[in-house]
Amino acid sequence: EEQLVESGGGLVQPGGSLRLSCAASGFTFSRSVMSWVRQAPGKGLEWVSSIYTYSSNTVYADSVKGRFTISTDNAKNTLYLQMNSLKSEDTAVYYCALGGYGTPFIYWGQGTQVTVSS
Fold it and tell me: Per-residue pLDDT tens for 56-88?
């Protein structure tokens, strides 16, 4: 069974940092496109970032470029999102997903809540 489990969310003040993790299983993680997608309250899904796990090529939404870093540990089948200089507009449920950026989204995690508030 394909499974993605996010963790690392929480409450942080504006300007603070969080690192999200996504533990993957049930598919070939090292030959995948992985993405982070978020959903703010009352809003639709917003793509944040993607990484090609086989090349480490990365791409970011303009809204997070320079602040967020997506990475993988292929030996651990784990996806990360390092979030720095957080803004209130970053408040959302963050999901990891298999696919994205030119490939279909296939599987989703359960999400982890990130709240940026003073």
Answer: 899 999 999 999 999 999 999 999 999 999 999
Average pLDDT, the chain: 96
The set of residues, in sequence order, having a beta carbon less than 8 Å from that of 53 and lying 6+ positions away, is 29, 30, 31, 32, 33, 34, 72, 74
What span, in angstroms and rounded, lies between the C-alpha atoms of 106 and 81?
19
Q: Distance of CA 72 to CAs 13, 40, 108, Å?
A: 26, 24, 17
Q: Which of these ranges, 39-48, 66-75, 99-108, has the smallest mean pLDDT?
A: 99-108
Instruction: State the DSSP string of 17-43.
Output: -EEEEEEEESS-GGG-EEEEEEE-TT-
Report d(CA 30, CA 72) in Å as an integer.
Answer: 9
CA 35 from chain centre, in angstroms, equals: 6
Please choose, from the candidates 9, 65, 60, the residue with its C-alpha nearest in 3D space to the C-alpha of residue 36: 60
How far apart, in Å, are the Cα atoms of 58 and each of 32, 42, 63, 79, 81? Answer: 12, 28, 15, 12, 12
